[in-house]
Amino acid sequence: MNTQTLPRLAITAGEPAGIGPELIIRLAATPLAANFVAVTDRALLERAAQRCGQAVELIDDDGGDITERTPGQLRVQHIPLGATETPGRPDPANAKHVLATLAEAADGCLEGRYAAIVTAPLQKSSINEAGIPFSGHTEFFAERARADVVMMLASPELRVSLATTHLPLAAVPAAITHDTLVRVLRIAHRELRGKFGLVEPRIAVLGLNPHAGEGGHLGREELDTIIPTLDALRAEGMHLLGPLPADTAFVPALRERYDAVLAMYHDQALPVLKSEAFDRTVNLTLGLPFIRTSVDHGTALDLAGTGRGDPASLIAATRMALELVARRSAIAQGHS
Ligand SMILES: NC(=O)C1=CN([C@@H]2O[C@H](COP(=O)(O)OP(=O)(O)OC[C@H]3O[C@@H](n4cnc5c(N)ncnc54)[C@H](O)[C@@H]3O)[C@@H](O)[C@H]2O)C=CC1
Ligand SMILES: NCC(=O)COP(=O)(O)O
To answer: From ligand 1's centre to the CA of 26, what distance in Å?
Structure first.
């Protein structure tokens, strides 16, 4: 008989009108060895289960540990909705509910009540339409934990960190500074060692401009900022390639030469991951004092309510959270 307690994972449902609640029902049906605690509205989960045609046993979370979970069982930390959801139609009346679920999950991790957070997608625009400035989970958790963070998306074949995250494209060049690159590369380097066990991580840094600036003929950010910063960090012992032209950095021959990529902005590298591994990619936040993983996709409003959303990325995010929890425990016990 298994007597080890299962890791308590806080699973947030994200946008109530998106596919998140249905994906959580699908996740609960898997035999994954974890104590899933859905941080959301109980009745929302009941309706999501009906839409999926999937049986689920919802159990009010008492904060305790368990050693076994039957597939289909799901503990719930009830956070009430502001308004009953209409699938596919986000309602800003639920913005405060969504943020309350994130706050409970983050505070629960900081207080040791959860081992990690796995997030389903939220609708950023709906939170903004409620009059609450919000750009994403990454920035929310960074502020809540007062941490310096970096967004990484990882598939089994490719890991990509971002120097800038949810920023209008026009604001990107000014954000690519020496200080930003040093901060982001130090966090990525430290976390590739700590979270992924890479002793000497090799990071390929993309240029900002076409052909990495073509020697200054297609933009000067590489010459003025990126190259001098990489040289300074190399002098500290970091193994950095680049700046590489983004259009060729992902070809197979180059991929063998690095363990991770640093892209300058969101849409420079995420289309590569999403087009080759949409169902296997996980979004994780580096630099937090707790483990947070997420799906790579959005709220899929066109599929919400149909029960047809693919839970693969949520399952991959959950598996990664469990691996990171196990690795953290092994390190804490002195076996790295
Ligand atoms: N982690 C998060 O909270 C994320 C939130 N978003 C937010 O989601 C919202 C919608 O974003 P979009 O750009 O429309 O991207 P999206 O990922 O929601 O949808 C793009 C396309 O992929 C399909 N799709 C997405 N997930 C799927 C799944 N699990 N199974 C099957 N098909 C799936 C959708 O049906 C749609 O055709 C935006 O507000 C965005 O900010 C986007 C990415 C991540
Ligand atoms: N493309 C990633 C994304 O938009 C999700 O960001 P976050 O909500 O995890 O910060």
So the answer is: 17
pLDDT in tens, 65-122: 999 999 999 999 999 999 999 999 999 999 999 999 999 999 999 999 999 999 999 9
Report which of 32, 301, 317 is spatially closest to residue 153, judged by C-alpha positions: 317
Q: CA-CA distance, 176 to 210, in Å (whole number)?
A: 15
Interval between CA 48 and ligand 1 midpoint (Å)? 18
| Ligand 2 within 6 A of CB of 292 | no
Residue-range domains of the chain with CATH: 1-146+290-336 (3.40.718.10), 148-287 (3.40.718.10)
| Residue ranges lining ligand 1, Cβ < 6 Å | 14, 19, 121-125, 137, 283, 294-295, 297-300, 302-303, 309-310, 313
The whole model's pTM is what? Answer: 0.96
The response to whether 137 counts as a known ligand-binding position is yes
Sign of the Cα torsion 323, 328, 334, 336 reads positive
